[in-house]
Model the fold of this input.
Amino acid sequence: MTLDTSVSSTGIGRLFRGQTAIDFYGKRKVGLIVAIIAVAVTVGSLFVQGLNLGLDFEGGDAWDIPASETFGVDEATDVLNANDVSTSGARIQLRSSETSDVVTVQVEVLPREQADAVTADFAEAAGVGVEDISFSFTSSTWGAEITEKAARALVIFLLVVAVFISLRFEWRMALAAITAMANDVIVAVGVYSVFQFEVTPATVIAFLTILGYSLYDTIVVFDRVKENEGRYAGTKTPYEDIVNVSMNQVMVRSLITSFSSILPVVSILMLGSGLLGAVALREFGLALLVGMISGVYSSIFIATPLLAFLKSKTTRTSRRSRLLGDDLRAAVMGAGVSGRIPEDTPQSGAPGSPDDGSEREPVPAGAPAGATASVQADRLLTHPPRPRKKKRR
Amino acid sequence: MKRRLWTSLIGVVLIVLITLGFNIATDNTPILGLDLQGGVSVILAPTEPASTDELTVIRDQIRSELERQGIAEPDVRVQGDTIVVDLPGVRDQQEALSAVDVSGVVELRPVLNPGSCQPVDATPAGPVPGSPTVDTGSTPTQDGVPGEDTEPQGLRSPQAPPESTPVDTTVPADTTPTDTTPPVVLDTPLPTQTVTPGAEVLPTRDGAAECVGPAQGTGEVFERGSAEPTLDASQGWGVAVDLRGGEGRDTWNSLASQCFSRAATCPSQRLAIVLDSVVQSAPTVQEPNFQDSVSITGTFTQGEAEELASVLNRGAFPVEVEAQEARTVSPSAGSDSLQAAIIAGLVGLGLVLTFLVAYYRWLALVIVGGITVWAGMVFSMASFVSGWTNYALSLAGVTGIIVAIGVTVDSYVVFFERIKDELRNGRTIKNAAPRSFKMTWRTIWSADVVSLIAAGILFSLSVGSVRGFALYLGLTTICDLLVCYFFTRPAVLLLARTKLMAKRETVLGMKVATA
Done:
């Protein structure tokens, strides 16, 4: 059987064959600027309009309306809708005991006149007098204690995770991963602030979910970087190259995973809240969607370039500029597993490959210069020589 | 090797099937949250007019007390001048009423007499052996078992002499604002022979009785929420609590000095901590004067120390509240929300699996199987765990599990992409699969450990819905790791060994070199 080693002519083909050669590091400024803009918008919005804290955080207005056969939760919802009161953050419940049933409606604090109008409408809808409806202020359920404890737990978590990543990888990766995560959470908070969505306890959970997802994604990417670091240990490869090669190698995985993660969220958003009308799912789904997209984005465009930047200060100065174009592609393909240079087969028709095979440095290979000649033979062996093991672990 | 793979594969599928079957047979499903299933709501009203601030304090205390009792994610709020407590996962109104019965005021009452209030000889003045002691934490204390405080004297352990001989004291009782006894001036430490006005016999926690004098202080003398169980190497479990500066300390010290000197108001030298007319503990006072904190020691078990600490904390209720009524509440998110979330989640999952099958071709059947096993495992574990911990699954939790699908799928994607890398380099699938798994496992393990750290820390340190989130994050992550190692690995490795696989020209949607 023939092994298809040709470089695909289409972008998509190259992508799915792991033959991409995107200079992620070179585009770091673009990535950074986008991130800075997002953070700036969030901070600006938080400063100007803050967050729209919901019922559970700020308290609100509450009505207790006697329920009857003609007045229930659905009718109460209709009254709120008719009065232009947002029901997405409202809590409408039927409370029943042996003696009587009441519909309890809780919404965010309304202006006095509007609240009175709603009370009157409730009375009319329920067929009772206004005096039978109890209207009162309801406090928050989310006490300061919960926020305090959650914040403390979060700080400790970040410290422990920083230590874990530092031990498992290195501290620069910890710093980069946490920065990327912070960016994602800020972007998600930003969506809530900019669009003034109501923040509920579920939203806080969404932010935490994003936090976890972002870290997860970044670590999967960093694991590949770390692995390649080992592969190139014997060579004087600039760190930017390692980062670029790793990013290209994990790109397919990142895309497929993100797509697989985002698909259910989109389904919740479109189907759950759109078609099936579960309003509670809408803003929650949106926060998750934005956070997850941002999570993938930040792993690629924030965490990794930041890592390369941090590393470039420490590692020995490289003796050449970073690989680009087909050189990079060759490294991406070849270093995929064994760190060998794949034999470039000019006849397979990769554009620009003729000048490639001729005088490329054995840089990405980690193989001694003399090895180039034997590469062709290597490739056909079922058991190629083991890659160098220095610093692998 | 092959055998072990089969064992693992069949084992994990069997275990999941059995637990799932068990759960379904016993109708053991995860408790659903207030937003999805509703629950029981109890309305509490203060017995006397209370300010909003006081109600807010009570709200926080009720919530932490409920959490301590293991009722997770209660929804407690002040509405008007009542406190509304919504409890998830509680069906029975009576159960709800007893659960929120946490509102009593702790009283401090001197012990006049163990057993009954009949006048007895003056001799039994002195610390009762076996009773807990109160000191500033530095004094070594006697051994004692809480709850034995009412046993006849001298029955057991040798009596420890009081630290100093009682001296004549004058206790100006009017320094205590809550004092109801007339000021007494005594020049003898001996107890009076008459029944003190306001004295009554109260049961102790273990069913014995104590005759206690009128309340001279409430739990308000302690700093709010400062009581904590302590473990001391020499003294075992105890409780340390801070005194509220100023009035609190004065009240406490006035009581302590009365008891320490065995004044007529407190002849037994013991001070009873009373909640809801039950003596919780009646420690012997070891010092007349306390500065900032009080330490109660004795042979407490850890549970008893925690219990007492919670009683002391609870005593900080500024006013007493009473349950007015219990009502069943309907789900707040609307009854169709759960259904919508589940339908949307399933459709999303279906789309993801279709996409993966289209992309990875028939090796993706492993993913379909793996996700099924994963889902069964998550369901079973969630059922068990929510039964133990009372953590309800809210809408946010359901959505969190849906998001976890993405992370779970990622284990397969990382694995399969790695296999493709290896195949591209000319390996056979048989050779590539085990190597790829080794690398994949490293990646998945590292990434999942971070999630587990998050789950562990958030669960142990936070409260309320954040804690519920942590629980389900941890659950799904553990299931992911288990399925990855015990299902995906053997499934793919075994498939890769089959002749069918070796003969195929395309694997995972790409052409491979065949051996």
Chain B is about 45% helix and 15% strand.
